[in-house]
Amino acid sequence: MWVAIVVAAGEGRRMGFKKQFLDLAGRPMWLRSVEAMIRGGADEIVVVASSADVDRMREEAGGAGLEIHFAEGGETRHASVVSGVKRALELVARHRVDAARAAFAIHDAARPFVAEEDVRRVFEAAARAGGAVLGSPCRDTVKRVEGGFVQETVPRDKLFLAETPQAIRADLVSRVYLERHYGSEDAPTDDSGAMEAAGVPVVAVASTAFNGKITTPADLDYARWLARERWGRAEHADRTRV
Question: Within 13 Å of residue 26, how many CA atoms lie on the same side as its CB?
Answer without folding.
Answer: 12
